[in-house]
Amino acid sequence: MADFPRLNDVARGMLSSRLLVLPLVSIADAIRGLTASDLMTVGPTTGIEHKQELRVCDVRDYGARVDDPGADLALPLLRAWKACTTGGIVHIGPGNWTLRENVTLKGGAGIAVRLDGIIDVRMESADTALVFVDCDDLEFFSPMGAGGIQGNGYSRRQQSNTDPARGQRILRLINSSNISIHDLRFADAEAFVIVVQTSCNVELYNLAISQPDIGGTDAIDVSGQNIWIHDVMAQGKDECITIKSPSDRILVEQIHCNRSGGCAIGSLRAGTAVSNVTYRHIYAWSCNQMFMIKTNGGDGHVNDILLEDFRGVNNQYALKLDMAWGKIPRAPGPGPSIERLSVYDWTARIKGSNPRPAIMLDCDVAQPCRQIDMQNIEFIRDDGTAWKAYCNAAEGTGIPCLAHTTAAGPSTAAVSPSMAFDAASLRQMDADAVEGYDQYQPIPLPDLPTSYFPGRSPIKPQASPFMKRRLDKKAQFW
Description:
Helix content: 10-25%
Distance between the termini: 40 Å
Radius of gyration: 22 Å
Shape: globular
Strand content: 35-45%
Structural class: mainly beta
Largest sheet: 25 strands, mixed
């Protein structure tokens, strides 16, 4: 929910030097959207086995004590990181590891962090538990998908009525490149779970996240360039995968938004720069909306966005574009320009007989939205009635309320479902949550699901005993 700071000159130079020059994306490419082959190489530049052959830094050798609630992993983890910072694997073995102070791991290159156990966050400060800064060629993973981080945010909420968006985060990645984070589980950050900030060539995948049924608890927020996020299940009443500014060439696919705020771009303010973004194969169950772009004043641009193959069941809205989003103060300026937004192949069953529009494109007459194209949109309400679409200062084609001129005033249109559309045929996911988690009660770590979108397998194989045995035979792990 909170905005990232704009890039300062140092961070901007760091990103530019790491990204090299990305090819321009044509209008035809924007309509087609990004695929994994369009991205530059993402993830680490050296493999796990190579890192393992260099050295293994076991946190127990640096003073860590497992299954000891009175211990603190922070200093032993920092020492292990420094010992392996030029290459190797930091190993956090099976069992429970109490973390009482936040840890900033800085400047590593050619390093991996292998988590086989559970990090149990018991910090008193409102910091981020684990921060990676200025890293290159980094992998954070669990070889069997058993590792995870328990944020225990409920215990802090019981003691305080402060804004959750100002509370503890679990994991933050800052100004880093060639990174992968995968096969991990997360639960109950007081605020956001994973924040990727001004980083490049990043891959996040095979992740499961459980958050409480309240706002201010985003699952994954990202800004940067050349980022691929896929196969993520996120539960919690704020957003699943949210793109912040500045961002370019971001691919998000096979996401299960599970009783959440859906996916989003924003919130956006002054100096917005978001372009070449594709969301594909997104499943939204019982969400506030399936997708949202949100801003309130400011300037800059949002362009070349493709939202393709969204499926939704029991959601309040489908698509919401709000240029006067009331949850942030109005910034000077008419808002960023929003152009070339393509919305293709959406099917959804909208919750109840709610009179609100399923699609709301509420732009600003001082900064109209242009070149919106919506095709193959099939919705129906639970009661079988027509759904509504609302457009204001929005120019484009595909649904009745889109004007052919931005001078047209607000327009609302009722759209009857196609006779060929069978809402009952919309497949749901086994992991769809019946109820949300109470913010004042413990939240269990979720299991990694076998699928993140109906009928599709994970893009990359999930962690398995074979992967663990392959690594273990090369080093003396637990």
